[in-house]
Design goal:
It is a single chain. It is built from 14 helices and twelve strands. The longest helix has 24 residues, at 25-48. Strand 5, helix 10 (204-216) and strand 6 (221-224) form a beta-alpha-beta unit. It is globular, with a radius of gyration of 19 Å. The protein is an alpha/beta fold and 350 residues long. The chain has a single domain, classed as TIM Barrel (Alpha-Beta Barrel), CATH 3.20.20. Bound molecules: zinc ion. Residues 152, 199, 225-226 line the site of zinc ion (ZN).
């Protein structure tokens, strides 16, 4: 009894997903403690071997095509610590009425030491054709503590470079971040205490509505994915390291993930190098490097694997490690796993 009370007391400093209440209390609290213990052990094991583990906060896949065992073996081989691998609900699943894909349940059942339970990608068709049903299902999963994280929600999304190459230009999504869907998502995060990821192209005209939402929902935990990934520089005069620093200072619950391409990555429509953090191959621009080094707690490791590139994990891992290794040593550890740990568990990794 005494031990149980102590466990409960410890867990209730955690966000809602990790802080059980109601009938499922003991069961969920135990599960969360078990997951967290496994995660810590895995990170420490990789550290002890002299390697840098990282927590990939943002990757997605098509769950119907994922070879879980092969994927887990790659994580092992590459010393990837943990992943928040979300399932995107594809057209076929959507047409069958799927509004929540329980991939995370299967991942954590099989490999409980390396997958963070996460909701589904908010992209077409789920977020565009049935936003209420989709968000109802994500909300229910979060309330029953099945997931620790939401997203990535696509509010403004240009066609990805791979889609452009395939001629799939229809994924040019625009959902007003200050519209009903935005209010619902920000409100959900504030109420549940769990973070969500947004895909939000960097354009001057889009910055003010985002700032207004961050102001209106100070408790919402927002991960703005793809730091400094600017596809059209002529549309983004305001977005600079100084601007991002201003956001960091104004909004304590705003985070940035570091899923971006290498120096030579070109956005095919504008023909521009869209990963603006780089000064040269493998060398960060000093202003971006200094910003991350000054506020490492606000930046998160991320690979951004997706259904159409899940087999490129070796290349994505290599590129991400080039980014991490170009940071000062302390910042490497903070960005790689400590920031995500604090965000997920409301405590420092020790
Ligand atoms: Zn994205």
């Amino acid at each position: 009894m005494h031990t149980r009370r102590r466990v409960i007391k410890t867990l209730c400093t955690l966000p809602l997903w990790a802080c059980a209440a109601g009938n499922a209390f003991a069961q969920d609290a135990d599960r969360t403690a078990r997951l967290k213990g496994g995660y810590a052990q895995r990170l420490k094991k990789i550290l002890a071997a002299g390697r840098l583990p990282y927590i990939d906060i943002e990757s997605s896949c098509n769950s119907t095509r994922l070879d879980i065992d092969a994927f887990a073996r790659n994580m092992e081989r590459l010393d990837i610590g943990l992943m928040a691998l979300s399932a995107d609900i594809g057209d076929g699943q959507f047409d069958r009425g799927v509004r929540f894909d329980n991939l995370s349940e299967r991942l954590t059942a099989r490999y409980p030491d390396r997958f963070i339970p996460v909701g589904n990608g908010g992209q077409p068709p789920a977020l565009t054709n049935a936003p209420d049903e989709f968000l109802d299902a994500q909300d229910a999963a979060a309330r029953s503590r099945q997931i620790a994280l939401l997203g990535e929600f696509e509010f403004r999304h240009y066609p990805s470079p791979r889609q452009v190459r395939r001629g799939e230009l229809q994924r040019d999504g625009a959902i007003p971040i200050d519209g009903p869907i935005g209010h619902r998502v920000f409100g959900m995060s504030a109420r549940l205490g769990i973070a969500f990821q947004i895909h939000y192209e960097i354009e001057d005209a889009l910055l003010v509505p985002l700032e207004q939402m961050l102001t209106q929902y100070p408790q919402a935990k927002v991960i703005w994915c793809h730091l400094a990934q600017i596809r059209y520089i002529e549309r983004a005069a305001r977005y600079t390291p100084q601007y991002v620093e201003g956001l960091i200072n104004r909004f304590p619950n705003l985070y940035f993930d570091t899923a971006f391409g290498g120096y030579n990555s070109i956005y095919p429509i504008s023909n521009q190098r869209h990963a603006r953090v780089w000064a040269a191959p493998g060398t960060l621009a000093p202003a971006w490097r200094d910003l991350i080094a000054a506020y490492p707690k606000r930046f998160l490791s991320a690979l951004d694997l997706g259904g159409d590139r899940i087999d490129q994990i070796v290349e994505y891992d290599r590129d991400h490690r080039i980014f991490l290794s170009s940071l000062p040593s302390e910042a490497q550890h903070q960005v790689a796993y400590r920031s995500a740990w604090s965000l997920l568990f409301n405590e420092e990794f020790t």
